[in-house]
Amino acid sequence: MKRPKLSTLNHQYKNVGDKLTPFEIYLKYSTEKDISIKQLNNILSQSSNSVKILDIGCGDGSYLLESIPKDSNFEITFLEPSIQLFNKLEKNIQGHENYNSINKTFEEFNLENKEVFDIVLASHLYHFSQSEYPIFLSQLISLLEDSGTLIWIERGIDEITDFKKRFKSKLLPDRYPKDWEPRNYKKALEILKEKSADTKLVLNRSVLKFPYKENLDEVMAIVEFYLNIDWTSIPIEVQNEILKYIEEKKGILKQEEGIIIYKKK
Ligand SMILES: C[S@@+](CC[C@H](N)C(=O)[O-])C[C@H]1O[C@@H](n2cnc3c(N)ncnc32)[C@H](O)[C@@H]1O
Question: Ligand 1 site: residues with CB under 6 angstroms?
Fold first, then answer.
């Protein structure tokens, strides 16, 4: 069997020419972002009108921008290291006096930062390994005002988990052995609960509807997005197994996302 190839680091968020990134293709077929935006809007609506927020690894900023409650007067610092996403972010926040953007990694920002925030948002930051979570979460908490809130968002345990586990362990067993578990919010929840009793979990449920049959190219892009393995490097018999799996689910996979709300005492 030929060796399946891991996709180039972070390729999921990179455009090739004027094409959509695999992440953007995935977004077209999932209800996750819409449901997540409603939920974050709900959470932010419970805070005062003029809080100071830090959004770490904010991408193009659209997630938080679309979640902000109407008539609020938030002061927001958007932090994003990727130059491509940062350029999009700058356009998205043009003309907003209360918004400020920084083109740095969290590590660079944290070294020189002296500010504290009412809310720190850390959503889907998969570039940090789980072994770094104890230190990373402590650093995030140290950026909070005394009664500030950390909002941590991470994948849940769902049919995507099953899909990833099944095919990643099959394709790259050395890297993903049978007992390997795809990343989810549980580890962060465990660490945060030990730090404060005032830690709440909210679950968002959504669905991913593959454009199965109508657009096989996009089905492959979504599979690559989740497996992080180049489709063309997958042996044909496993490609067929993947397509059969999707067909048996009638093209629909249930998704779960966890929002952890941690209040500093
Ligand atoms: C999966 S995206 C999440 C985007 C956004 N937070 C959301 O939930 O829609 C991860 C983001 O983290 C950024 N990132 C990667 N390494 C980072 C680092 N060291 N510090 C801060 N952000 C980082 C990436 O450029 C990307 O925009």
Answer: 56-59, 63, 80-82, 85, 105-107, 123-127
